[in-house]
Amino acid sequence: MHHSSAAVSGELTKPPPSTAPLQPLLDLITNVLSLLLLSSLTVRSFIGKWQILRSKLFSLHSSLSSLSESPHWSENPLLHTLLPSLLSNLQRLHSLSHQCSSASFSGGKLLMQSDLDIASSSLSTHISDLDLLLRSGVLHQNAIVLSLPASTSDKDDIAFFIRDLFTRLQIGGADFKKKSLESLLQLLTDSEKSARIVAKEGNVGYLVTLLDLHHHPLIREHALAAVSLLTSSSVDSRKTVYEEGGLGPLLRLLETGSPPLKTRAAVAIEAITADPETAWAISAYGGVTVLIEACRSGSIEVQEHTAGAISNIAAVDDIRTMLAEEGAVPVLLPFLISGSTSLQEKSANFISLLSSSGEYFRDLIVRERGLQILIHLIQNSSNPDTIEHALLALTQLSAIDSIARVLSSSTGFIIQLGEFVKHGNVILQQISSSLLSKLTISDGNKRAISDCLPSLLKLMESTKPAGLQEAATEAAKSLLTVRSNRKELIRDEKSVIRLVQMLDPRNETMVAKELPVIIVAAILSGGNNAARTKLMSLGADRHLQSLEEMEVSGAKKTLQRLAAGNRLKSIFTRAWKDH
Where among 201, 217, 244 does a domain terminate? Predict the structure, then answer.
């Protein structure tokens, strides 16, 4: 049954409906219905409307027959509200049938048409409510109010409880709705698996309708809390909320709701937009502007979740452009300095996505002081994910020549990259290595991070993620252009042993043998005899000879450089004969 806001507001303070026996009431309804079916045959005015009504009356008769045959129908509390309302409507229809019994109707025709339409609509609602009760199976359950299933309950028990709960939610008045929503919230909070069952067995579409502004605030608040939990609990339930039209009402609540409603709406919107196939729909509802404004002026919680939603929808090309045009960049960039940990991460992800999307977006970020903000972020954040997004953004910005020069000359930034190579997770190590290899770094800055060379050589042995070995090799090669760095590395016994082991054809960890060859060549580029001696003593010559025979790129030239000089040539010859 449907209620106006005022009616619903009143119902929340009403006493519970009468618990008088229902059988006499059903008998009375059946009698009035029989009389009405007979009188509908004798009407002489508005015959077309009465034909439609008569069809509905027959459907009602069938539903009431099924109701009376259900073993526990009289114990269901919903009928204490539904049946009196139905009786009132039938009595009103019976009165109207008498007024229409004359062919020359003398009353107001427009008023009669309106009365018949209202009665017909109410009749449809009653039939729908009865059918819902019958289909749910709750009339075969002898418990007046089903108890909340335990988290260990099986799927069938939870499904039955959900069907009963949604029946009460849809048919019952405001008090039933409130109690049903409270039970739903408890179920979703206590049992993770319940969200999928609610999506399948419950009427999520009806739950979404309760988000409309004309519903009582308490009911709307509970409904929104349930929708928010559904979107956050599972992919299936999140998809169901979206497919049942939940995104539009959620955006309206984010825009116009009270602070608590805005927070829950933001949580749900972030969850829904996590699916790429639904993220695009934000623009169809005019949601881009709503999200940016909520992110600009909302509470910290609202900002966190709307920033997440903005980051999600930024994956869609067309929406990315809209976000830029609507001013998302100047709204989110400051969060990289002043925002919470979560807000920083989501904002950094958004900036990273934008920076990878073309020159227009990169220029926009730079104009808003994005370079300085990103450098500040990586030097002050302790969140690896946030740093990852910031480094990826800086990598993209370095495609601009002027930005690349600034980054290359920033000693603090270069030292920070070296720290990530030594102590960061593998993703940060890869991104930092890649940046070090691409930037034109001064010799002074290269000397400042010489202590990360052992870490770079160690990364060369890592087969995952793809591209890490190459990035580490290129970064190490760049640092080895400085003489003091070459000397420092060759004094590191462990690193030199690791390098020679990578040359060994039998070592399958290093599949691309040309990479350690590049590093040996870089070490030998300055003609350091101590380096030659150390490498020869560890067997680098033998491995290079094998790699030359395998036609590994650079092996022949590097072997020749290693064997340069008469004394080393003789050593090489003896060693080769011994081999």
Answer: 244
Determine the residue type at 550: M
Least confident of 44-48, 419-423, 514-518: 44-48
**In sequence order, which residues have a C-beta less than 8 Å from that of residue 507 and are 6 or more positions away?**
501
pLDDT confidence bin for 570, thresholds 50/70/90: low
Is 475 inside a domain boundary? Answer: no
Q: Is residue 543 part of a domain?
A: yes
* Nearest alpha carbon to residue 381 among 328, 409, 341: 341
Of 244, 272, 303, the one marking the end of a domain is: 244
User: 412: which residues sit within 8 A by CB, 6+ positions away?
Assistant: 375, 379
Distance separating the N- and C-terminal Cα atoms of the chain:
94
Q: How far apart are CA 411 and CA 442, in angstroms?
A: 9
The two tokens of residue 116 are 């018949």
Number of structural domains, the chain? 2
Q: Is there a domain that residue 285 lies in? A: no
The helix/strand count (H/E) of the chain reads as 37, 0
Cα distance between residue 138 and residue 70, in whole Å:
9
Residue 261 lies in a domain: no
Alpha helices in 70-108 (DSSP H): 79-99
Q: Which residues contact 250 (CB under 8 A, 6 or more apart)?
A: 211, 224, 227, 265, 268, 269, 272
- Parent domain of 121: 1-14+24-39+52-66+115-244
User: CA distances (Å), 463 to each of 220, 430, 469, 470, 508, in order?
Assistant: 53, 12, 7, 10, 10
Tell me the whole-structure pTM to 2 decimals.
0.77
Q: How many CB atoms lie within 10 A of CB 304?
A: 25
